[in-house]
Amino acid sequence: MIIQETIREQVTGHPVVLYMKGTPQFPQCGFSDAAVRMLQSCGVDTFFSVNVLADAAIRQGIKDYSNWPTIPQLYVNGEFVGGCDIMREMHASGELQRLLAPQTA
Q1: pLDDT above 70 covers what percent of the chain?
Q2: Helices marked H in the chain — which ranges?
Q3: DSSP classification of residue 53
Q4: Which of 20, 23, 28, 15 is nearest to 87 (CA)?
Q5: pTM for the complete prediction?
Q6: 7, 12, 37, 39 - which has most CB atoms within 10 Å?
């Protein structure tokens, strides 16, 4: 349960959190790279990221926390938004930009 508490603190302690493979500067998979680029295209240049490759407990723990099987995972204001495919759909419709607009002000 300690890992779940850590994740809860990360998710609620930062306005935008991306659990990803690698880092924003050096993504380790195409989906994580796409997620970072979408955030940047929405004007979110600074966000809290967690490299799930650095910690197996976090990698599994975030999947359990969200009940979502894949990485990356985006959280905004403590709420799970989705993975890369959902981010892509939201970005295409403009919904992601609207969701993130308060974070860029």
Answers
A1: 98
A2: 2-13, 30-41, 56-66, 84-93, 95-104
A3: G
A4: 20
A5: 0.95
A6: 39
